[in-house]
Amino acid sequence: MSTEYVVRVAEDPADREACFVVREEVFVGEQGVPEDIEYDAYDATALHVLAVRADGTALGTGRLLYGEAAAAKTGGDLTVGSLGRLAVTREARGLGVGAALVGAIEDAARARGLAAVDLHAQTHALGFYERLGYVAYGPEFPDAGIPHLAMRKVL
């Protein structure tokens, strides 16, 4: 398998569909998240990023909510974006895809004038996000039956 890939903003319907296929595989298939809560109204307005191999195979995805869409997740602070739905396919784990996706989301947040990015991390992924500069805050909470912690990185 080629380990070469690019990360780009998902602009067209085919890219967005590829994002949803990755989320279906990782969250619904592997983690047992109910499909009816995996996809939400935020998907329509979020900025989605996609990692793809040269042959077009989708390797990972994530999304950025900003403005009013993020306010419910960031305590109402419109200068903070919300990173979410970060998923990397099993075959692509360990290639740096997750970090590249987070970097692309942070770049998009900076381009929109945001001061920080929040996320809700599955507790098993805390170390990954900490290595990227995120700091946990607040109590642990369940989301889709999976323990999470809120984290923030100032940009």
Give me a quick take on this structure.
The protein has 155 residues and is α+β, with helices and mostly antiparallel strands.
Characterization of this structure:
The structure is a single chain. The protein has 5 helices and 7 strands; from the N terminus they run E-H-H-E-E-H-E-H-E-H-E-E. The chain has helices spanning 13-30, 35-38, 68-71, 97-111, 126-131, and strands at residues 5-9, 47-53, 58-65, 80-88, 116-122, 135-143, 146-154. Helix 4 (97-111) links the parallel strand 4 (80-88) and strand 5. With 155 residues, the protein is α+β, with helices and mostly antiparallel strands. The longest helix has 18 residues, at 13-30. It has a 7-stranded mixed beta sheet with strand order 1-2-3-4-5-7-6, with helices on both faces. The mean pLDDT is 94. Helices cover 30% and strands 35% of the residues.
State the low-pLDDT regions, or none: none
- Taken in chain order, the helices and strands follow as EHHEEHEHEHEE
- By DSSP, the count of extended strands is 7
Strand content: 25-35%
User: How many helices?
Assistant: 5
Write out the strand line-up for the largest beta sheet, numbering strands in chain order: 1-2-3-4-5-7-6
List keywords for this structure.
about 160 residues; alpha+beta; 7-stranded mixed β-sheet; 5 helices
Topology:
Layout: E1 5-9, H1 13-30, H2 35-38, E2 47-53, E3 58-65, H3 68-71, E4 80-88, H4 97-111, E5 116-122, H5 126-131, E6 135-143, E7 146-154
Parallel strand pairs: 4-5
Antiparallel strand pairs: 1-2, 2-3, 3-4, 5-7, 6-7
